[in-house]
What does this fold into?
Amino acid sequence: MVSTERSIALQPQFWQLARQACLIGIGVNTIFFGVFLYLDARILAWVNVISVLMYSWAFSAFGKRQNTLATGLIWTEVVLHAALATLLIGWDSGFHYYLLLFFPALAVTLRGPMALAAMIVQWCFYIGLYLLSYWYRPLRPISDEALLGLNFFNLTVVVALFGFLGFYYVRTIKVANRKLNTLASVDELTQLLNRRQVTALAEAELARSERSQLVASAMLLDVDHFKLINDVYGHEKGDQVLQHLAKIITRELRQHDLVGRWGGEEFMVLLPETDLSLAESIAERLRSAIASHAWETNLGHDLRVTISIGVSESKPNETLTRLIKRADNALYISKDEGRNRVTVLQDLSKESELAKEVSRSQ
Ligand SMILES: Nc1nc2c(ncn2[C@@H]2O[C@H](COP(=O)(O)OP(=O)(O)OP(=O)(O)O)[C@@H](O)[C@H]2O)c(=O)[nH]1
It folds into this structure.
C-alpha cells in the first residue's frame, strides 16, 4: 500500500478504515504477546511488542495524515511478522494469511501496472516463504495443538478483515452511485433539477394526470434583460441572482410541484392537478414575489429583477413537448408585451395564430 497520486485521491474514509485496522493490529498483537509468553516462544512475544509499537506509530501517522508513512509501517510489520513467524514456528501457524490482505489493497491503492508489479512481488514472496517452510523445519517448533489454535485464530481475523474490506467497498460504490445520480439530475448552480431530470419527471407526472383524468399546468419563466444584469453587475452577480431566484421559486411552490432549470436564465415548472386559472394565480404570485425582491449590489443601489412567465394547461393525450411549446408561446407574448408579466394560453385558435406569428418573427 505505497502512496501514489491515486492513493492520495482515495476517499478519507479509506484512511479512516486503515486507521481502525491499526487498532485491530494493536489488539491482536497484544493477545499474541500473551499467547507466545505462555507458549514460551519469547522471540515471537518480543516481535509482538515491536508490532504493537509499529501499529501505534501507524495509527498516530494516519491521524496526522502521513498516509504513506503509516501504510509503509503496516506493510513492513505484516511482511516481517509473517516471515519470522513462518520460519520460527512453521507455515501451519497461519501468519502468512495476513499477506493475502495486501492483494486487494494493492489493487486499490496503486495504478494498474504498478499494482500488477507489486502483486507479482508479493506473490513471489508468498510462494518463497511457503517453499522455505516446506524445505526447512521450523527453527522454534511449538505443539501441534498450539499450531492449530493459532491457525484458526489467524484465519478468523483475516476472514473478518476481508469481510470489512468487502463491506467498505460496497458502501463506497453506493455512495459514489448516489453522487453520480445527483450530478446527473441536479443543476450545479441552482441545485434545481436539471432539464433532463425535470423533463423525465414531468413526463411521468403528465402520464399520471392523464390516467387519473386530471389536468396539469406548465410554466416557463424567463428572467428579463438578464444579459444586462450580467453586463452591468458581472457574471458572478448574475449567478447569485439565478441561485436566489431558484430559492424564491421553490419557496413559493407546493412540495409536489416540479421545478427545474430549463436553460441559462429560464426555469420550467410543472404543476400537477392544477388548472389554468389556478396556475395563472400561482404564476402571478411568483412574478410579484420576484419583482418585489431587492438584491443588494456594490454600486450603491438595489437591483430589481423581473421575470416573464408563460402558462399552459394540459389537454387530453398531449405530450409534454406540446404543453411546453404552448407555455413557450405564452412566454413570447409576455416578453413581447413589455415583460414582467404572466400570459396564459387558453384558446386553440389564438394559439395557432400565435404560433404563426412566432415562427414569422424568429
Ligand atoms: N451569470 C449567468 N449568466 C447566464 C447563465 N446562463 C446564461 N446566462 C446569460 O443570460 C443571458 C441571456 O440573454 P438573452 O437571451 O439575450 O436574454 P435577456 O437578456 O434576458 O433578454 P430577454 O429574455 O429578452 O428579456 C446571456 O447573456 C447569457 O450569457 C448563467 O448560468 N449565469
Q: What stands out?
A: The radius of gyration is 34 Å. The chain has a mean pLDDT of 89. The chain is about 65% helix and 10% strand.
